[in-house]
Structure formats: structure tokens, C-alpha cells
Specification:
This is Acyl-CoA dehydrogenase-like protein. With 402 residues, this protein is α+β, with helices and mostly antiparallel strands. It is built from 14 helices and eight strands.
């Protein structure tokens, strides 16, 4: 297995391979032993997370996929794959390595004003600010642009924002939120009525309404409200009323970054399966010799290997500025499927221990189930992908998988 990994990694730069090994060691030796305490939540877990984050900084492993101009160390998304999957081996790594804010760092650098760079981007990459993203709203199914009712009106150089957002990640610790709001007139086409505006969470009129547990456990999701919140005009990302295009760009990169982490979690489950099968208890139960056990591990390997290759191809498209929504969406679904297969198979092999807190599998299982919803449900991605492929054949007779 190590040889196969090394052969695959040979297509990446030496710097990426080196960072991948360093991150793997840090996760296995520093983060994983602390997982039970981190899972408890509360002030103690938050303090421990801060301590581990500082260790990651000292080890030179913080913000590896931030823009190179802002302390990042990897420019290629394809190269980042082998690093991100190692970061993803623990559900707690994203915050510890700062990778949870890499997407925002790229969006703010590309579309932000000088004031946004100074007030939000620079503090964030320094670890002094935490981002969140408010898109989905209560009382609406999903996050379709036509359903957005949060509004922002410009007057005398300030935006006045009113509305609600929910299932906002990092809601418990965010220092600012990027809000998708309606800024154009209702009679204008929806694609020309939305904008993204940055709102500090200490703004008057901003409120965290509630924390939202996910499958019985708090994962940082929350609901927030905006009541006559005012921010400067320059807090808008990009041009006025181009929020739909920014949303598409954000989703493309965000889906692949999540997918990379999910593949890492799937690999963690795969390793746990191997340990269980060859453990004393596994040998006493003759697990290595049972056909269905072999099927579990073979199916898991196939799912992980397939997802990694699909992500790599989709990432290369973004690197060369030729993104394919079909490839990105399929890669995201494949990573989700790999994690679901891996976590379910691992739980099955561990039996009662797998659904308890005696292993990390119960927490991973929660994430696996949410992966089929986050950043686009399976159903919406399948529908979109199918439509695009059917439309392709209106113009062409042959699809080239090049």
C-alpha cells in the first residue's frame, strides 16, 4: 500500500510530497491522541484546539493552501490534494491547520477591496480572525438564488442589511460573515440582484439566534440574524449584483476542498478496518478469512481510489483556469460516497464499538451523512450534471474523457 501511495504521489511536486508526510505525522502523533478531549466540546476543548493550532504554526503547517502572497506554501490545487487528504484524517484538523479558512482567503484576495484585504484577509491569515459564510435561509428549501430574501440597501456609503441565515459553519467562533444578500430590484433577473457583503459579527444588529446540533452533536452550525446592520460600501466582494457568479466560484473550489478532506477521513476508516481485521479480536473471529469482510475492504479501496482520481482531474481543471462543473460535481459526490462506504463498513466491522464513543467512527459517521447534503445535495448535483451531459449531446456526438 505504501508503494502504491508513493507511485501516485510521484506526480506531485517534491514540496507537496514533503508537506504531505509532515502533516500525516502531525495528525497521527499530535491531533488524533487528543480527539476524545476535542470531541467533548466546551471551553476546555477550545483551549486545547488553540494549543494544537499554535503547535501547527510552529511546525510550519498552518494555512498551507492560503494564497502564496499570504504565507501559503502550495499554489496548485492538484498538489494540495495529497496534503489536504492527510489534514482530513481527523475531523478536527481543519480548524487546527487553518484549512477551514483557505477558501475565504482565496475569495477575499481575488475579489476584495484594499480595505477588505486590510480589515479581514490579513487578520484571517494571521489567525486573528475566523470567517463564516451565510447563504442558506430558514423557511426555504435549499439555497437557490431565487429564494434569497436577505436584503442589503446602499445609502450614504453604507449597506443596511436585514435577514436571517442558518446552517452557517463556524457560527460559534466567527469574527465576520460573508453574507449573500439581495441588492438589486425585484424586477431584475435574479442573477443580477445578489451581492456578497462582509459583516463583522460585533456589528450592532447582528445576533446569533441559536446553535444547531447535527445528528445530536454540535459541529459549529448556527442561525444568525441581521437587523438594520450597517457596514461600509467597500465591504462588498467584487462588483455590485455579481453574487451569483461569486457563489458559483466559491462552490467550485469549496466542493473540491471538502472532497479532499472527506477522502482523508475515508482513508482513516480504511486504516481502522485493517487494524480491526488483523487485531487479536479480529483474528479470533477469523475476520481475514470471511468473504464479506474482504468485500467490505475491497469496496472501500475502490471507492477511495476512484474519488481521489476524480478529484485530481477536477482540481487540474481549476489550476489551468478551465473548471468543469461536471467533473467537480462528480468528484464531490464520489468523495461523499467513498466516505459513506468507508465509515459504514468500518462501523460494521467494529460492531457495537463502532457506534459508541470508544472509537472515532461515530463522529466520522455523522460527517459522512452530512456530506451528501453540504455544498449541494446529491439530488441537485445529479440533476445538474445529468442536464449538462444531455445538453452536451445536443451539439456533439462523442464525449471525450480526456
Amino acid at each position: 500500500m505504501l508503494q502504491a501511495y508513493q507511485e501516485q504521489a510521484s506526480s506531485h511536486t517534491e514540496a507537496a510530497r514533503s508537506l504531505s508526510c509532515e502533516v500525516r505525522k502531525f495528525v497521527d502523533k499530535v491531533i488524533i491522541p487528543c480527539e476524545p478531549r476535542l470531541a467533548e466540546g466546551g471551553d476546555s476543548a477550545a483551549q486545547l484546539q488553540s494549543e494544537l493550532t499554535e503547535k501547527a504554526r510552529r511546525a510550519g503547517l498552518w494555512g498551507l493552501f492560503y494564497p502564496l502572497s499570504h504565507s501559503g506554501k502550495i499554489a496548485s490545487l492538484e498538489d494540495y490534494l495529497i496534503v489536504a487528504e492527510q489534514e482530513g484524517r481527523s475531523e478536527f484538523s481543519s480548524a487546527i491547520f487553518g484549512s477551514h479558512s483557505a477558501l475565504d482567503a482565496h475569495m477575499l484576495l481575488k475579489f476584495g477591496s484594499d480595505e477588505i484585504h486590510r480589515n479581514f484577509l490579513e487578520p484571517m491569515v494571521a489567525g486573528e480572525a475566523t470567517p463564516s459564510y451565510g447563504m442558506t435561509e430558514p423557511d426555504h428549501g435549499g439555497s437557490f438564488p431565487t429564494l434569497i430574501t436577505t436584503s442589503a440597501h446602499l445609502s450614504h456609503g453604507n449597506w443596511t442589511i436585514n435577514g436571517r441565515k442558518w446552517f452557517v459553519g463556524n457560527a460559534d467562533r466567527a469574527t465576520f460573515v460573508t453574507v449573500l444578500a439581495r441588492t438589486g430590484k425585484e424586477e431584475i433577473h435574479t442573477r443580477q440582484t445578489l451581492s456578497m457583503i462582509l459583516v463583522p459579527t460585533n456589528s450592532p444588529g447582528f445576533s446569533i439566534e441559536r446553535q444547531i446540533p447535527i445528528l445530536g452533536r454540535f459541529l459549529g452550525q448556527g442561525e444568525m440574524s441581521f437587523t438594520d446592520v450597517q457596514v461600509p460600501e467597500y465591504n462588498r466582494l467584487g462588483k455590485n449584483d455579481n453574487g451569483t457568479e461569486l457563489m458559483s466560484q466559491r462552490l467550485r473550489l469549496g466542493r473540491l476542498l471538502r472532497a479532499m478532506n472527506w477522502v482523508g477521513l475515508a482513508q482513516r476508516c480504511f486504516d481502522l478496518m485493517g487494524m480491526r481485521i488483523n487485531s487479536r479480536r479480529g483474528l479470533s473471529a477469523r475476520l481475514p478469512y470471511k468473504q464479506l469482510v474482504r468485500q467490505h475492504i475491497a469496496n472501500t479501496y475502490q471507492a477511495i481510489a476512484s474519488a481521489r482520481e476524480l478529484i485530481r482531474v477536477a482540481a487540474r481543471g481549476i489550476d489551468i483556469q478551465c473548471p468543469s462543473d461536471v467533473r467537480i460535481n462528480v468528484a464531490k459526490m464520489a468523495a461523499s460516497q467513498a466516505l459513506c462506504i468507508a465509515s459504514d463498513s468500518a462501523v460494521q466491522l467494529y460492531g457495537a464499538e463502532g457506534i459508541s464513543d470508544l472509537t472515532p467512527l461515530s463522529g466520522i459517521y455523522r460527517i459522512a451523512r452530512t456530506s451528501r447534503i453540504l455544498d449541494g445535495t446529491d439530488e441537485s448535483l445529479i440533476s445538474s450534471t445529468g442536464r449538462r451531459l444531455i445538453d452536451f449531446f445536443k451539439e456533439e456526438d462523442v464525449y471525450h474523457f480526456g
